[in-house]
Design brief:
Number of strands: 12
Strand content: over 45%
Shape: globular
Order of helices and strands: HEEEEEEEEEEEE
Helix content: 10-25%
Structural class: mainly beta
Largest sheet: 12 strands, antiparallel
Number of helices: 1
Length: 269
């Protein structure tokens, strides 16, 4: 073999090796991407106990707006949620949630027992005080989370519609709940994976944007919810380690608007 042919052969082998390396790298990246997809489910044990602390702040300008002399104000809420799991299986679980709440210096306690599927969607439930601040814990899923049916990876999105009829099922004090029309869509995005307390976690964000109407005739009003939320979720069990939410709730009635700004933070103890 001449020196020219030898050099050409060497270049050919080098080129083939480069192509093979590139292809193998592509296969490896594809394999890693495929492995990064996870099926998120709540995987609890019977008798398991979870305790969360929640701080919330609600600031309202009053009906018609502060400029019209309407009474508004700020309300601070501190709550502890003690959750006990029962009837746990691959299909779902039952959660009994006792919420001890301090609102503007006044203490109150509510208890809710609800059944969920493994994705966190509420199947049934009851509250010791319908219409209370925590009565709507279920419509958006378990602790506000409903997982997608399919496996997801970084960048995956899914949407869940919140049905507020359940949250408005009782107004307390003997009042009749208004008719509710419409749903509030929540779009979730899996932003990244990470580690917390030695556990693999998924960092999930959510965007809330929708309007529902309540009541009929002259008593008709609308409520628009807009906000963003985030949660740190343990991949193996679905346990939510912490979550935050900020947003606005606008109630329109008889040509007037009341805007409330809401922020919450919930942390697993």
């Amino acid at each position: 073999m001449t020196r020219t042919n030898s050099a050409r052969s060497a270049r050919t082998r080098a080129g083939a090796l480069l192509i093979a390396t590139t292809l193998m790298a592509g296969v490896a990246v594809f394999a890693i991407a495929a492995q990064s997809k996870v099926t998120l489910r709540f995987n609890f044990k019977n008798g398991q106990k979870l305790t969360y602390t929640t701080t919330a702040k609600v600031t309202s300008d009053g009906m018609g707006g502060a400029r019209n002399g309407a009474q508004g104000g700020t309300m601070n809420i501190d709550a502890t949620q003690a959750i006990v799991i029962s009837e746990a299986s691959a299909k779902g679980f039952t959660a009994k949630t006792t919420t001890s709440m301090t609102q503007q210096g006044k203490k109150r306690e509510t208890t809710q027992t609800a059944k969920y599927d493994a994705r966190g969607a509420q199947l049934s439930g009851s509250s010791s005080q319908p219409g209370g601040p925590m009565a709507g814990i279920g419509p958006g899923g378990f602790l506000g989370m409903t997982f997608p049916a399919e496996a997801v990876g970084v960048g995956s999105t899914w949407t869940v519609d919140i049905d507020l009829k359940n949250a408005m099922g009782g107004m307390g004090g003997g009042a009749q709940a208004p008719q509710v029309k419409g749903r509030i869509p929540v779009k979730y995005t899996l932003k990244s994976f990470g580690t917390k307390a030695g556990k693999r976690v998924a960092n999930i964000t959510a965007v809330i944007n929708g309007t529902v109407t309540m009541g009929e005739g002259q008593n008709n009003m609308s409520m628009t919810l807009k906000g963003t939320a985030g949660a740190v979720v343990e991949v193996a069990t679905g346990i939510i380690h912490e979550s935050t939410m900020t947003g606005d709730a606008t109630v329109a009635f008889s040509g007037m608007n009341m805007v409330s700004k809401i922020s919450t933070k919930t942390v697993l103890k």
